[in-house]
UniProtKB/TrEMBL annotation:
Residues 3-64, 208-242 form a coiled coil. This is UTRO protein. The keyword Coiled coil applies. It comes from the Eukaryota. InterPro entries: Spectrin/alpha-actinin, Spectrin_repeat. Keywords: Coiled coil. Signal peptide: none annotated.
Length: 254
């Protein structure tokens, strides 16, 4: 009777493993939204816990069959053979579910990381857009133009590492068919805005550099002119002080 019960327990265990494999491993899942992906991760975590909890039951079966085999070798030998099959299948099921759980957790982590990088780069784009807008109505002063140019250049020196991460993370998920529609839409919007603002910012940088160069050249010309006028004023003042007649002066002084 004990052998019959143990045989029944082994059959039930095998049936449970078959159902678990069908439910957790053989279904063709599609993750088209973050909610679906997050739910799948939580389901696989519960599946992993559920499977590992059966380890106690498997150990009890193993111990009972060994004990029966020691007392009734003829009955125990057949059960031991069935037990080995169940143990092998159970270990395989544990490994596969652990692997799928780990994979889904990695995918979810990849998605969260992508969102974080997009947030960082979006903040940078907002800052860049603000700096570009600030260059629109500048006072016609050299210091103001110079400060605006330096401010814009400091933002443009932003490293490209984050954008590389966005591209790689997004492509990895898309290649796996994970959230591909949502990610493609996000990347397309981000890249379009990045290209537009980058070109606009570089154009404004070039325009400011040219404006600054013109203002410096004009400022230099005015400075030279002012120095010449000052010298002339000093010379004319000395002529007047010495009461020199205009016709006695050199032609340029006249």
């Amino acid at each position: 009777e004990k052998a019959v019960n143990l045989k029944k327990d082994l059959a039930e265990m095998q049936e449970w493993m078959t159902q678990a494999e069908e439910e957790y491993l053989e279904k063709d899942f599609e993750y088209k939204s973050p909610e679906e992906l997050e739910n799948a991760v939580e389901d696989m975590k519960r599946a992993k816990e559920d499977v590992l909890q059966k380890e106690v039951r498997v150990k009890i079966l193993k111990d009972n069959i060994k004990m029966l085999a020691s007392k009734v070798p003829s009955s125990g030998q057949d059960l031991a053979t069935e037990l080995n099959v169940v143990l092998e299948n159970y270990q395989l099921l544990c490994n596969r579910i652990r692997g799928k759980c780990h994979t889904l957790e990695e995918v979810w982590s990849c998605w969260i990381e992508l969102l974080q990088y997009l947030d960082l780069e979006t903040s940078w784009l907002n800052n860049l857009e603000e700096r570009v807008q600030m260059t629109g109505n500048l006072p016609d002063k050299l210091d103001a133009v110079n400060d605006a140019l330096e401010s814009l250049e400091s933002v443009l020196r932003h490293p490209a590492d984050n954008r590389t991460q966005i591209r790689e993370l997004g492509q990895t998920l898309i290649d796996g068919g994970i959230l591909d529609d949502i990610i493609s839409e996000k990347l397309e919007a981000f890249n379009a805005r990045y290209e537009e603002l980058s070109h606009l910012a570089v154009s404004r940088q070039i325009a400011l550099e040219q404006q600054l160069q013109t203002m410096r050249e004009t400022d230099h010309m005015l400075q030279v002119l002012q120095e010449n006028l000052t010298d002339l004023d000093r010379q004319l003042t000395s002529y007047l002080t010495d009461r020199i007649d205009a016709f006695q002066m050199p032609q340029e002084a006249q």
